[in-house]
Structure formats: structure tokens, C-alpha cells
Amino acid sequence: MDEELLPIGRFARLGRLSIKQLRHYAELGLLVPAYVDEHTGYRYYRHEQARDALSIGLLRSLDVPLTVIAQVLSDTPGVLEGVHERLEAELARRRSTLAALERVMTEGLPSAPVTVVTEPARRVAVATATAADPSDVGRATSDVIARLRAASSAAAPELIGLFPLDLGEPVTVSVALVSEEPVAGAQLDVLPGGRFASATHVGPYGQIGLTAHALLSWCAERRCPVRGPIREVYVSDPATTPPDRLITHLMIPLEEL
Asked: Would I find Aminoacyl-tRNA synthetase among this entry's keywords (predicted)?
């Protein structure tokens, strides 16, 4: 055995990793010992491997997944861009959550005037997407809306978001474009009419959940049976309207007693 080899304990201190981490990374093939004693099972590393060990620790501290770290260590170009995009999206969600919390701190638990309205059936073109979890719904909805806007010939398309009452994992997100004509990438359908409990949300899309809370609370207090999907009728054009002035009508179908 090479006398320059380091036992796992000394190498762990040099690479600023725990022995448990080193064993795990060896199992993954991420950082394999230079030598394993076949009789004792003791593991040994070379001094030169410390750079990889330190790099793994650094990248893990930056929330880089182990699968991506393996690609970084093998000099695969461009692999960190996806991690950067994921962290940016997570940061945007956190900022949206913080803004909603600040609104609750200022205004108290959400309440909104609720009315019962009757809506006619409408012919629509529906496109769908899948959100990984409830926190991903905003991203999935924006993607579907962008697709429908690009495919529509209308100057001001009428768009309605359709969301299940129960948000599991994953979440199927649908957006309906009011249209009598086929729309590329969408399925023609009829959006049922009927009686709806309705409330108006004014503010960023990321805070629509506050108004949905008020609307669902109103229904529960009045023992109104509800059914999905929850509708979000987008009145404002976000391209020309400041986020704090965006108007969205929330509507929940009411079951007939």
C-alpha cells in the first residue's frame, strides 16, 4: 500500500466531510477510495482527492444535487444553469409568500365581499399542464396562459384558470380560452354554467390564495355545498397592469341543495 495514502478519518478532516458522508459518496461512485484493504475493509484516499472532497462540500452548501455534482466533477459544461433556474424560481416563490404574509399582518386574516352569480355555459378551448406540487401551480399556470395567448388570434383573449379543490401532488392545471374556434394545442369543450359564489381579488396573482381562503370560508359558514373546479377569471392584462392592480374574479360552483 502507498505510504502517501490517508486513512478515512484523516481524509475526512482534510476534506471537511464526515466519515458517513464519505462512505455514502463512495457508494454512489462520486468519491471512491483510492484503496480498500481487502482484509480489514479500511478505506484510504490520496491527497489529490481532497480537492474533489472540498468541491463536493462547497456545491452541497449551494444546494446543488449530488447527481449534478458528479457532472461538475467530470467537467460537463452548463450543468449548473438548471440549478440556478431552480433556485431563482424558489426565491420568487419565497418572495411571493413573504408578500402574502405581510398583507395578512397588515390587514388581518383575509375577508372579501362574496356574491352569488349565475353564469351561462361557454364554449372554450382548454389547455392543461402538470404542476409538481401546489407551490409549482403558479409556474404551470403561467406556462399554459402563455401558450394560449400565443395561439389565440384575439387581441384581448378571455382566459379562465381551472383548479381542483383538493391540491395533491402532482396538480393538474387547466386554463380555458373563451373561443368558438379551434385553438392550436387546446381541446374544444363547454364550460358549464350555473350558480357560483364569487369574490374579486385585487393584487398579485401570487396572493390569490388569500381571496380563495375568504371565498371558501364564506361557503363553509353558510353550509353551501361546493364543487370544483375553482375558476379564476383574469380580467387584467399583466403586461400593461401593475401587479398590485391586477383584477381576478374567483368563482366556486355551488351545488344545488
From this structure: no
